[in-house]
Amino acid sequence: VGTVWGRRSIKTRMSHAPPHHPHPPPPPLTLFPLPALVAVTVACALLFVVGVVGNLTTIVVVSRYRDMRTTTNLYLRSMALSDLLVFACMPLDLQRVWRYRPWPLGGAVCKLFHFVSECCTHCTALSIAALSVHRYLAVRFPLRAKVSVTRRRVRAVILALWAVSACSAGPVLALVGVEHDASRAEAECTATRHAVKSGLLSAVVCVSGALVALPALCLCVLYTLIGRKLSRGRRADARSSARDKNHRQSIKLLAVVVLAFVLCWLPFHVVRFLISASSAAGSPIMSLISQYCSLISFVLFYLSAAINPILYNIMSEKYRAAVCRLFGIHSRRRRSASVTKAESCPGLNESTVSL
Q1: What is the CATH number of the domain that holds 265?
Q2: Which of the two ends of the chain, N or C, has the fewest CB atoms closer than 10 A to its terminal CB?
Q3: Could you list the residue range(s) of the whole structural domain that residue 319 is in?
Q4: Is residue 156 part of a domain?
Q5: Distance (Å, whole) CA 343 – CA 338
Q6: pTM of structure
């Protein structure tokens, strides 16, 4: 992730030795003090446990129970899979934060590691955008959406989103690799010299940021239109009031999911842009600031992968009932949650009612 894309700028800063020294001192093996490393490791370990358990639970709940396999929940299952892949990369990420050189796993693992993180980033952003379009269609054209938005078509859309994400993350395979310094034998998994000097790294960072910013902009527009539609629905007849109430509950939860996504990902992309800019400019001050800010975005990166199941559990009664059923925990509200579909859960119901 972004914390290591800027390693080369740190090495540039360390290489500015006084003129009377024939050789610059070697850069340190770690870039941060021990207390900061311990704090980040503890936070990431907690997020790893919560995220893996939560996302695995989401996948199992949606896959196991037929009443949970709605079109909306298929998107949520895909997002949970993406988050699990992100957590699969966490041990390598933490290892590089503690000791970024030497890299012991070779060039193929280095490239695959960056590719998976980038692909999951894009897929999560596109999935949230597609889910929001689905919600807009369900609110604006409820009858038509119930007929046209089928599970088979949603599965096809999800596969297409993964394919687009893989293609958009493909250039990362050419931008990162195992680099060797002429003065020592240690290998480092980082952006290549050609990617930094040619400006390709900055270009890919901008494209990656746009893939997150543009869906977020679309979400703002769609949720504004949905809000206007629901506000007009308050003046409609009583038969549509219950459906509009369910829609308002579902949009409230999706808005919280989108807000959490933006708050977690915006610092990450801002810091990564600063890192790429400091790598190109060779600014010691910007490099130092971006490196320490990257620790915050580093934790937020994994928080974004762990927070969604927590939000589902807090705001969706039917999700809680399904989790209780999965783990054999009896709940007094489970029966009512499964019977009254429209009222008990804002999400995890029929295609016209979303999480």
Answers
A1: 1.20.1070.10
A2: N
A3: 2-11+31-230+238-344
A4: yes
A5: 10
A6: 0.77
